[in-house]
Amino acid sequence: MSNMQKKRFSKSLFLVGLFVFGGSFLLSGCANAPKTLNSAISGPQVIVNPESISLGVAALTGAKIVFEGSGFKPEDSVFITLFGPNKTEAVVADGKVGSDGKFTAAVGTLAKVTGILKGNVSGKYAADGSYDQFIVITQPPIPAGIYTAKATSMLSDLTAETKLTITEPSVGDSLKDWLGEMTGKIVDKQTK
Predict the structure, then answer these.
(1) Contact, 65 vs 48, CB < 8 A?
(2) How far is residue 134's CA from residue 124's CA, in Å, rounded to a whole number?
(3) What is the per-residue pLDDT across 135-144, written as a single tens digit (0 to 9) for each?
(4) How many Å apart are CA 145 and CA 113, to the nearest integer?
(5) Is 188 helix (H, G, I), strand (E, B) or coil?
(6) What's the average model confidence in pLDDT over 122-128?
(7) Does the bond joining 50 to the residue before it have cis omega, within 30 degrees of 0?
(8) Torsion of CA 113, 117, 119, 124, to 10 degrees
């Protein structure tokens, strides 16, 4: 094989690898249809979308995690607590119940970083005056496993539960985190 053929082969192999890698990112997000509330249930209920999240820093902070519920008392408030392996307990969201007894509670970035990843959000001012935020990881996140997400009413004894699966970071998630570290968006200060 000549040098020219080797270069073409290497370039083709690189492009095929890039195509396969990119395709895996696209397909990895298309696993399940979103859950919906069951209108046949009149009592308290809660669901979460998606039903599974990764402990990859970039994947988790970029994910839209939303709890929805119904059957609660109008004008009440609820908070969502995760209960899981090793007696883990983390409050991750709260929401206001509407006049129809329904609520929506999204998990915010701060709850993802401090409650699930066990890190902090920090930042610094750039020379142009802009503020650049980054995530600082100082300890291991909550353990992977199947968690019970419990919606608890603030003004009554109403509760509802659903399951949320938390997985270890995939190879793709680890690559995203490595890129985040290279760009300064993620700072890993764990002692390894």
Answers:
(1) yes
(2) 9
(3) 999 999 999 9
(4) 18
(5) strand
(6) 84
(7) yes
(8) -50
Q: Which of 149, 181, 137 is nearest to 51 (CA)?
A: 149
For residue 142, which of 114, 179, 122, 163 has the smallest C-alpha distance? 114
The helix/strand count (H/E) of the chain reads as: 4, 11
Output the DSSP codes for 80-127. EEEEEGGGEEEEEEEEE--TTS-EEEEPPHHIIIIIIS-EEEEEEE-T
Query: Which pLDDT band holds residue 26 (cuts at 50, 70, 90)?
Result: very low
Q: pLDDT tens digit string along 167-190?
A: 999 999 999 999 999 998 999 888
DSSP characters over 125-164: E-TTS-EEEEEEE-S--SPPEEEEEEEEESSSS-EEEEEE
153 closest CA partner among 45, 13, 12, 21: 45
Instruction: Specify the amino acid at residue 70.
Output: S
Q: Residue 73 in contact with residue 97, Cβ under 8 Å?
A: yes
**pTM, rounded to two decimals:** 0.78
